[in-house]
Protein backbone atom coordinates (compact mmCIF):
# COMPACT_ATOMS: atom_id res chain seq x y z
CA UNK A 1 0.00 0.00 0.00
CA UNK A 2 1.12 3.53 -0.79
CA UNK A 3 0.09 6.45 1.42
CA UNK A 4 0.07 10.04 0.19
CA UNK A 5 -0.95 13.04 2.23
CA UNK A 6 -3.01 16.14 1.46
CA UNK A 7 -1.33 18.78 3.61
CA UNK A 8 -3.98 21.16 4.91
CA UNK A 9 -2.90 21.98 8.44
CA UNK A 10 -5.33 20.55 10.99
CA UNK A 11 -7.44 19.15 8.11
CA UNK A 12 -4.54 17.12 6.69
CA UNK A 13 -5.63 13.64 5.57
CA UNK A 14 -4.19 10.51 3.99
CA UNK A 15 -4.87 8.94 0.60
CA UNK A 16 -4.35 5.18 0.82
CA UNK A 17 -3.75 3.44 -2.52
CA UNK A 18 -3.57 -0.33 -2.93
CA UNK A 19 -5.25 -3.55 -3.98
CA UNK A 20 -7.88 -5.02 -1.63
CA UNK A 21 -8.01 -2.02 0.71
CA UNK A 22 -11.78 -2.30 1.25
CA UNK A 23 -11.02 -5.29 3.46
CA UNK A 24 -8.75 -3.20 5.70
CA UNK A 25 -11.03 -2.65 8.72
CA UNK A 26 -8.13 -1.04 10.56
CA UNK A 27 -7.75 1.76 7.98
CA UNK A 28 -11.44 2.61 8.17
CA UNK A 29 -11.59 2.40 11.97
CA UNK A 30 -8.73 4.89 12.26
CA UNK A 31 -10.95 7.56 10.69
CA UNK A 32 -14.35 6.81 12.25
CA UNK A 33 -15.22 8.74 15.40
CA UNK A 34 -18.54 7.40 16.73
CA UNK A 35 -20.37 4.09 16.41
CA UNK A 36 -22.66 5.12 13.55
CA UNK A 37 -21.76 4.89 9.86
CA UNK A 38 -23.85 5.67 6.77
CA UNK A 39 -22.63 4.18 3.49
CA UNK A 40 -23.88 6.19 0.52
CA UNK A 41 -23.69 4.25 -2.74
CA UNK A 42 -25.82 3.52 -5.80
CA UNK A 43 -27.78 0.71 -7.42
CA UNK A 44 -24.83 -0.33 -9.62
CA UNK A 45 -22.05 -0.26 -7.05
CA UNK A 46 -24.04 -1.73 -4.12
CA UNK A 47 -24.27 -5.28 -5.53
CA UNK A 48 -20.55 -5.21 -6.33
CA UNK A 49 -18.92 -3.76 -3.20
CA UNK A 50 -21.40 -2.92 -0.42
CA UNK A 51 -21.10 -6.29 1.37
CA UNK A 52 -17.31 -6.23 1.21
CA UNK A 53 -17.22 -2.77 2.76
CA UNK A 54 -19.79 -3.68 5.40
CA UNK A 55 -17.67 -6.66 6.45
CA UNK A 56 -14.93 -4.21 7.33
CA UNK A 57 -17.38 -2.24 9.47
CA UNK A 58 -18.43 -5.02 11.82
CA UNK A 59 -19.18 -3.56 15.23
CA UNK A 60 -20.58 -0.30 13.85
CA UNK A 61 -24.23 0.53 13.35
CA UNK A 62 -24.39 0.81 9.55
CA UNK A 63 -27.11 2.53 7.50
CA UNK A 64 -27.18 1.88 3.75
CA UNK A 65 -28.31 4.69 1.46
CA UNK A 66 -28.62 3.34 -2.08
CA UNK A 67 -29.24 6.05 -4.68
CA UNK A 68 -30.28 5.78 -8.32
CA UNK A 69 -27.25 5.70 -10.64
CA UNK A 70 -26.25 8.52 -12.93
CA UNK A 71 -25.18 12.11 -13.44
CA UNK A 72 -28.85 12.96 -14.11
CA UNK A 73 -29.53 12.20 -10.40
CA UNK A 74 -26.85 14.54 -9.04
CA UNK A 75 -29.49 16.97 -7.80
CA UNK A 76 -31.53 18.22 -4.81
CA UNK A 77 -34.07 15.42 -4.95
CA UNK A 78 -31.43 12.71 -4.66
CA UNK A 79 -29.50 14.65 -2.01
CA UNK A 80 -32.67 14.65 0.06
CA UNK A 81 -32.66 10.82 0.01
CA UNK A 82 -29.33 10.91 1.89
CA UNK A 83 -30.79 13.17 4.59
CA UNK A 84 -33.88 10.91 4.73
CA UNK A 85 -31.59 7.93 5.43
CA UNK A 86 -29.53 9.77 8.06
CA UNK A 87 -32.49 11.21 9.93
CA UNK A 88 -34.60 8.09 9.52
CA UNK A 89 -31.92 6.05 11.33
CA UNK A 90 -31.30 8.86 13.86
CA UNK A 91 -27.69 9.52 13.00
CA UNK A 92 -26.13 12.00 15.40
CA UNK A 93 -23.28 14.49 14.99
CA UNK A 94 -20.64 11.81 15.57
CA UNK A 95 -21.78 9.80 12.57
CA UNK A 96 -19.45 9.03 9.65
CA UNK A 97 -20.65 9.24 6.04
CA UNK A 98 -18.76 6.93 3.68
CA UNK A 99 -19.05 7.55 -0.08
CA UNK A 100 -18.78 4.24 -1.98
CA UNK A 101 -18.87 4.87 -5.74
CA UNK A 102 -17.75 7.20 -8.48
CA UNK A 103 -17.57 10.97 -8.57
CA UNK A 104 -21.34 11.44 -8.57
CA UNK A 105 -21.68 9.56 -5.28
CA UNK A 106 -18.57 11.18 -3.79
CA UNK A 107 -19.69 14.71 -4.67
CA UNK A 108 -23.21 14.16 -3.32
CA UNK A 109 -22.26 12.23 -0.17
CA UNK A 110 -19.60 14.84 0.59
CA UNK A 111 -22.09 17.68 0.21
CA UNK A 112 -24.55 15.81 2.44
CA UNK A 113 -21.80 15.30 5.05
CA UNK A 114 -20.97 19.02 4.88
CA UNK A 115 -24.61 19.97 5.52
CA UNK A 116 -25.89 17.26 7.86
CA UNK A 117 -26.05 18.76 11.35
CA UNK A 118 -23.66 21.42 9.94
CA UNK A 119 -20.93 18.91 9.20
CA UNK A 120 -20.13 15.30 10.07
CA UNK A 121 -17.19 12.96 9.55
CA UNK A 122 -16.67 11.88 5.91
CA UNK A 123 -14.61 9.17 4.19
CA UNK A 124 -14.19 8.65 0.44
CA UNK A 125 -14.01 5.14 -1.01
CA UNK A 126 -13.86 5.96 -4.76
CA UNK A 127 -14.52 3.10 -7.19
CA UNK A 128 -14.05 4.65 -10.66
CA UNK A 129 -10.71 5.70 -12.12
CA UNK A 130 -11.98 9.27 -12.42
CA UNK A 131 -12.96 9.46 -8.77
CA UNK A 132 -9.70 7.78 -7.67
CA UNK A 133 -7.49 10.25 -9.53
CA UNK A 134 -9.53 13.40 -9.09
CA UNK A 135 -12.92 13.88 -7.46
CA UNK A 136 -12.30 12.05 -4.15
CA UNK A 137 -9.29 14.25 -3.38
CA UNK A 138 -9.50 17.94 -2.57
CA UNK A 139 -12.86 18.45 -0.94
CA UNK A 140 -15.01 19.82 -3.76
CA UNK A 141 -18.52 18.53 -3.17
CA UNK A 142 -21.86 19.46 -4.67
CA UNK A 143 -24.67 18.92 -7.12
CA UNK A 144 -25.70 20.14 -10.58
CA UNK A 145 -28.33 22.77 -11.38
CA UNK A 146 -30.26 22.55 -14.68
CA UNK A 147 -28.55 25.81 -15.69
CA UNK A 148 -25.03 24.86 -14.67
CA UNK A 149 -22.80 21.95 -13.76
CA UNK A 150 -21.62 21.64 -10.11
CA UNK A 151 -23.07 25.06 -9.34
CA UNK A 152 -24.29 24.29 -5.82
CA UNK A 153 -21.89 22.84 -3.27
CA UNK A 154 -19.26 23.25 -0.58
CA UNK A 155 -15.57 22.75 0.04
CA UNK A 156 -15.53 19.91 2.56
CA UNK A 157 -12.47 17.74 3.03
CA UNK A 158 -12.76 14.05 3.87
CA UNK A 159 -10.97 12.44 6.84
CA UNK A 160 -9.39 9.92 4.49
CA UNK A 161 -9.50 8.61 0.91
CA UNK A 162 -9.27 4.85 0.54
CA UNK A 163 -8.50 3.78 -3.03
CA UNK A 164 -8.93 0.06 -3.66
CA UNK A 165 -7.48 -0.45 -7.15
CA UNK A 166 -9.17 -3.84 -7.40
CA UNK A 167 -12.53 -2.10 -7.83
CA UNK A 168 -11.41 -1.03 -11.31
CA UNK A 169 -11.68 -4.63 -12.56
CA UNK A 170 -15.47 -4.25 -12.83
CA UNK A 171 -15.42 -0.81 -14.44
CA UNK A 172 -16.87 -0.60 -18.00
CA UNK A 173 -14.30 0.34 -20.67
CA UNK A 174 -16.06 3.61 -21.46
CA UNK A 175 -15.79 4.68 -17.79
CA UNK A 176 -12.12 3.71 -17.67
CA UNK A 177 -11.43 5.97 -20.65
CA UNK A 178 -13.40 8.78 -19.02
CA UNK A 179 -11.05 8.54 -16.03
CA UNK A 180 -8.03 8.65 -18.31
CA UNK A 181 -9.13 12.11 -19.49
CA UNK A 182 -8.38 13.46 -16.00
CA UNK A 183 -5.14 11.46 -15.80
CA UNK A 184 -3.93 12.99 -19.08
CA UNK A 185 -4.94 16.39 -17.68
CA UNK A 186 -2.24 16.18 -14.98
CA UNK A 187 0.44 15.60 -17.61
CA UNK A 188 -0.78 18.52 -19.69
CA UNK A 189 -1.05 21.02 -16.84
CA UNK A 190 1.96 20.22 -14.67
CA UNK A 191 3.91 17.06 -15.51
CA UNK A 192 5.22 16.84 -19.08
CA UNK A 193 7.34 13.69 -18.43
CA UNK A 194 4.10 11.97 -17.35
CA UNK A 195 2.81 12.48 -20.91
CA UNK A 196 5.69 10.35 -22.21
CA UNK A 197 4.91 7.69 -19.58
CA UNK A 198 1.26 7.73 -20.66
CA UNK A 199 2.17 7.42 -24.33
CA UNK A 200 4.26 4.34 -23.50
CA UNK A 201 1.73 2.76 -21.12
CA UNK A 202 -1.68 3.57 -22.64
CA UNK A 203 -2.31 -0.01 -23.81
CA UNK A 204 -1.41 -1.40 -20.36
CA UNK A 205 -3.83 1.07 -18.74
CA UNK A 206 -6.63 0.18 -21.15
CA UNK A 207 -6.13 -3.51 -20.46
CA UNK A 208 -6.42 -2.86 -16.70
CA UNK A 209 -2.82 -3.72 -15.87
CA UNK A 210 -2.84 -3.21 -12.07
CA UNK A 211 0.75 -2.04 -11.92
CA UNK A 212 0.23 0.60 -14.61
CA UNK A 213 -3.06 1.73 -13.07
CA UNK A 214 -1.48 2.06 -9.63
CA UNK A 215 1.35 4.18 -11.03
CA UNK A 216 -1.11 6.43 -12.88
CA UNK A 217 -3.27 6.82 -9.76
CA UNK A 218 -0.31 7.59 -7.51
CA UNK A 219 1.15 10.15 -9.89
CA UNK A 220 -2.24 11.81 -10.44
CA UNK A 221 -3.10 11.92 -6.72
CA UNK A 222 0.34 13.30 -5.90
CA UNK A 223 -0.20 16.14 -8.38
CA UNK A 224 -3.68 16.84 -7.11
CA UNK A 225 -2.59 16.74 -3.44
CA UNK A 226 0.22 19.20 -4.21
CA UNK A 227 -2.09 21.63 -6.00
CA UNK A 228 -4.87 21.41 -3.39
CA UNK A 229 -2.38 21.93 -0.55
CA UNK A 230 -1.14 25.08 -2.30
CA UNK A 231 -4.59 26.50 -3.04
CA UNK A 232 -7.46 24.74 -1.28
CA UNK A 233 -10.16 27.32 -2.13
CA UNK A 234 -9.16 27.85 -5.77
CA UNK A 235 -7.89 31.38 -5.59
CA UNK A 236 -5.07 30.58 -8.01
CA UNK A 237 -3.27 27.46 -9.21
CA UNK A 238 -6.13 25.05 -8.37
CA UNK A 239 -8.14 26.47 -11.26
CA UNK A 240 -5.64 24.85 -13.65
CA UNK A 241 -7.20 21.50 -12.66
CA UNK A 242 -10.10 22.68 -14.77
CA UNK A 243 -8.25 22.36 -18.08
CA UNK A 244 -10.90 21.55 -20.70
CA UNK A 245 -13.69 21.82 -18.12
CA UNK A 246 -15.19 25.16 -19.18
CA UNK A 247 -15.74 23.80 -22.69
CA UNK A 248 -16.63 20.36 -21.25
CA UNK A 249 -19.20 21.62 -18.74
CA UNK A 250 -20.90 23.50 -21.60
CA UNK A 251 -21.16 20.20 -23.50
CA UNK A 252 -22.56 18.36 -20.45
CA UNK A 253 -25.13 21.03 -19.68
CA UNK A 254 -26.21 21.53 -23.30
CA UNK A 255 -26.50 17.82 -24.09
CA UNK A 256 -28.28 16.94 -20.80
CA UNK A 257 -26.47 15.50 -17.78
CA UNK A 258 -25.31 11.93 -18.38
CA UNK A 259 -25.52 11.93 -22.19
CA UNK A 260 -21.80 12.59 -22.48
CA UNK A 261 -19.79 11.20 -19.56
CA UNK A 262 -18.00 13.91 -17.58
CA UNK A 263 -14.59 12.58 -18.65
CA UNK A 264 -15.66 12.45 -22.30
CA UNK A 265 -16.81 16.07 -22.20
CA UNK A 266 -13.52 17.01 -20.51
CA UNK A 267 -11.60 15.20 -23.28
CA UNK A 268 -13.36 17.12 -26.07
CA UNK A 269 -12.93 20.30 -23.99
CA UNK A 270 -9.23 19.58 -23.58
CA UNK A 271 -8.84 19.19 -27.34
CA UNK A 272 -10.46 22.64 -27.65
CA UNK A 273 -8.10 24.11 -25.02
CA UNK A 274 -5.13 22.64 -26.94
CA UNK A 275 -6.48 24.12 -30.18
CA UNK A 276 -6.97 27.54 -28.59
CA UNK A 277 -3.51 27.51 -27.00
CA UNK A 278 -2.10 26.75 -30.45
CA UNK A 279 -4.16 29.49 -32.11
CA UNK A 280 -2.78 31.92 -29.52
CA UNK A 281 0.72 30.89 -30.54
CA UNK A 282 1.57 29.42 -27.14
CA UNK A 283 2.02 25.78 -28.16
CA UNK A 284 3.17 24.44 -31.51
CA UNK A 285 1.04 22.41 -33.92
CA UNK A 286 3.10 19.34 -32.99
CA UNK A 287 2.40 19.89 -29.28
CA UNK A 288 -1.33 20.35 -29.91
CA UNK A 289 -1.34 17.17 -31.99
CA UNK A 290 0.57 15.26 -29.30
CA UNK A 291 -2.06 16.12 -26.68
CA UNK A 292 -4.98 15.27 -28.94
CA UNK A 293 -3.36 11.98 -30.06
CA UNK A 294 -3.02 10.92 -26.42
CA UNK A 295 -6.73 11.55 -25.84
CA UNK A 296 -7.57 9.53 -28.97
CA UNK A 297 -5.26 6.72 -27.80
CA UNK A 298 -7.34 6.58 -24.59
CA UNK A 299 -10.45 6.02 -26.77
CA UNK A 300 -11.82 9.44 -25.88
CA UNK A 301 -13.89 11.77 -28.06
CA UNK A 302 -12.08 14.91 -29.21
CA UNK A 303 -14.78 16.33 -31.47
CA UNK A 304 -17.48 18.40 -29.74
CA UNK A 305 -21.14 17.53 -30.48
CA UNK A 306 -22.09 18.39 -34.08
CA UNK A 307 -25.16 20.33 -33.00
CA UNK A 308 -23.30 22.72 -30.66
CA UNK A 309 -22.66 26.14 -32.17
CA UNK A 310 -20.22 28.73 -30.77
CA UNK A 311 -23.28 30.54 -29.38
CA UNK A 312 -24.37 27.45 -27.43
CA UNK A 313 -20.89 27.22 -25.94
CA UNK A 314 -20.72 30.91 -25.04
CA UNK A 315 -24.15 30.84 -23.38
CA UNK A 316 -23.12 28.00 -21.02
CA UNK A 317 -19.58 29.22 -20.51
CA UNK A 318 -20.97 32.51 -19.15
CA UNK A 319 -22.07 30.69 -15.95
CA UNK A 320 -18.73 28.94 -15.37
CA UNK A 321 -17.35 29.23 -11.81
CA UNK A 322 -14.19 30.81 -13.18
CA UNK A 323 -16.16 33.80 -14.46
CA UNK A 324 -15.19 36.77 -12.27
CA UNK A 325 -16.91 40.16 -12.49
CA UNK A 326 -18.56 38.97 -15.68
CA UNK A 327 -15.23 38.16 -17.31
CA UNK A 328 -14.65 34.69 -18.73
CA UNK A 329 -11.37 33.07 -17.69
CA UNK A 330 -10.01 29.95 -19.35
CA UNK A 331 -7.37 27.38 -18.48
CA UNK A 332 -4.93 27.26 -21.38
CA UNK A 333 -1.42 25.95 -21.98
CA UNK A 334 1.68 28.10 -22.18
CA UNK A 335 3.53 24.89 -22.91
CA UNK A 336 2.88 21.16 -22.46
CA UNK A 337 3.10 20.69 -18.67
CA UNK A 338 2.53 24.39 -17.96
CA UNK A 339 -1.04 25.70 -17.60
CA UNK A 340 -2.32 29.16 -16.80
CA UNK A 341 -5.70 30.73 -16.08
CA UNK A 342 -6.32 33.82 -18.15
CA UNK A 343 -8.88 36.22 -19.54
CA UNK A 344 -6.24 37.75 -21.83
CA UNK A 345 -7.26 36.45 -25.22
CA UNK A 346 -8.90 37.97 -28.26
CA UNK A 347 -12.58 37.08 -28.47
CA UNK A 348 -12.09 36.24 -32.17
CA UNK A 349 -9.64 33.48 -31.22
CA UNK A 350 -12.10 31.98 -28.76
CA UNK A 351 -14.85 32.17 -31.38
CA UNK A 352 -12.62 30.55 -34.00
CA UNK A 353 -11.71 27.79 -31.52
CA UNK A 354 -15.37 27.08 -30.81
CA UNK A 355 -16.14 26.89 -34.52
CA UNK A 356 -13.01 25.01 -35.61
CA UNK A 357 -13.33 21.89 -37.77
CA UNK A 358 -12.32 19.17 -35.28
CA UNK A 359 -13.44 16.37 -37.63
CA UNK A 360 -10.91 17.55 -40.23
CA UNK A 361 -8.26 17.83 -37.51
CA UNK A 362 -8.82 14.24 -36.37
CA UNK A 363 -8.76 13.01 -40.00
CA UNK A 364 -5.45 14.79 -40.48
CA UNK A 365 -4.03 13.18 -37.31
CA UNK A 366 -5.17 9.72 -38.35
CA UNK A 367 -3.63 9.94 -41.83
P1 LIG B 1 -20.02 8.19 -11.92
O1 LIG B 1 -19.95 8.47 -10.50
O2 LIG B 1 -21.30 8.44 -12.63
O3 LIG B 1 -19.57 6.68 -12.17
C1 LIG B 1 -19.56 6.18 -13.48
C2 LIG B 1 -20.38 4.89 -13.60
O4 LIG B 1 -19.61 3.80 -13.10
C3 LIG B 1 -21.67 4.88 -12.83
O5 LIG B 1 -22.64 4.19 -13.57
C4 LIG B 1 -21.31 4.10 -11.58
O6 LIG B 1 -22.41 3.50 -10.96
C5 LIG B 1 -20.38 3.06 -12.15
N1 LIG B 1 -19.40 2.48 -11.25
C6 LIG B 1 -18.73 3.10 -10.24
N2 LIG B 1 -17.80 2.28 -9.75
C7 LIG B 1 -17.87 1.14 -10.45
C8 LIG B 1 -17.14 -0.08 -10.42
N3 LIG B 1 -16.10 -0.25 -9.62
N4 LIG B 1 -17.49 -1.06 -11.28
C9 LIG B 1 -18.52 -0.88 -12.15
N5 LIG B 1 -19.22 0.24 -12.25
C10 LIG B 1 -18.90 1.24 -11.40
O7 LIG B 1 -18.92 9.03 -12.74
P2 LIG B 1 -17.41 9.41 -12.43
O8 LIG B 1 -16.77 9.50 -13.76
O9 LIG B 1 -16.82 8.55 -11.39
O10 LIG B 1 -17.53 10.87 -11.81
C11 LIG B 1 -18.04 11.94 -12.55
C12 LIG B 1 -18.53 12.99 -11.59
O11 LIG B 1 -17.43 13.46 -10.81
C13 LIG B 1 -19.12 14.21 -12.27
O12 LIG B 1 -20.33 14.55 -11.64
C14 LIG B 1 -18.09 15.30 -12.06
O13 LIG B 1 -18.65 16.57 -12.00
C15 LIG B 1 -17.48 14.88 -10.75
N6 LIG B 1 -16.14 15.39 -10.52
C16 LIG B 1 -15.89 16.01 -9.34
C17 LIG B 1 -14.62 16.46 -9.05
C18 LIG B 1 -14.33 17.07 -7.72
O14 LIG B 1 -13.25 17.63 -7.54
N7 LIG B 1 -15.22 16.95 -6.76
C19 LIG B 1 -13.58 16.28 -9.98
C20 LIG B 1 -13.87 15.64 -11.17
C21 LIG B 1 -15.15 15.19 -11.43
N1 LIG C 1 -11.49 18.84 -10.28
C1 LIG C 1 -11.07 20.17 -10.03
C2 LIG C 1 -10.66 20.45 -8.63
O1 LIG C 1 -10.73 19.60 -7.78
O2 LIG C 1 -10.28 21.54 -8.34
The small molecules bound here are: nicotinamide-adenine-dinucleotide, glycine
Total number of beta strands: 11
- CATH class identity of the largest domain: Mainly Alpha
- Give the termini separation: 43 Å
Oligomeric state of shown chains: single chain
Percentage of residues in helical conformation: 40-55%
Radius of gyration based on Cα positions: 20 Å
Low-confidence stretches: none
Shape: globular
N-to-C SSE series? EEHEHEHEHEHEEEHHHHHHHEEHH
Looking at CATH, the homologous superfamily of the largest domain is Dehydroquinate synthase-like - alpha domain
List keywords for this structure.
367 residues; alpha/beta; Rossmann fold; Dehydroquinate synthase-like, alpha domain; two-stranded antiparallel ribbon; 46% helix; 18% strand; binds nicotinamide-adenine-dinucleotide; binds glycine
Structural commentary:
This protein has 367 residues and is an alpha/beta fold. The protein has two domains: 2-170, Rossmann fold, CATH 3.40.50.1970; 173-366, Dehydroquinate synthase-like, alpha domain. It has helices spanning 25-29, 46-55, 76-88, 103-115, 129-135, 173-190, 192-206, 210-230, 245-255, 262-279, 285-297, 310-317, 347-354, 358-366, and strands at 2-6, 13-18, 36-42, 61-67, 96-101, 121-126, 140-145, 148-155, 160-164, 330-335, 338-342. The strands form three sheets. The protein has a seven-stranded mixed β-sheet, sandwiched between helices. Strands 7-8 form a two-stranded antiparallel sheet. It has a two-stranded antiparallel sheet with strand order 10-11. Strand 3 (36-42), helix 2 and strand 4 form a beta-alpha-beta unit. Helix 5 packs parallel to helix 8 (210-230) and helix 10 (262-279) packs antiparallel against helix 11 (285-297). The longest helix is centred in the middle third of the chain and has 21 residues, at 210-230. The structure holds nicotinamide-adenine-dinucleotide (NAD) and glycine. Glycine binds next to loops. InterPro entries: Dehydroquinate_synthase (IPR050071), DHQ_synth_AroB (IPR016037), DHQ_synth_fam (IPR030963), DHQS/DOIS_N (IPR030960), DHQS_C (IPR056179). Its cofactor is NAD(+); Co(2+); Zn(2+). It is found in: Cytoplasm. Residues 179-323 form the 3-dehydroquinate synthase C-terminal domain.
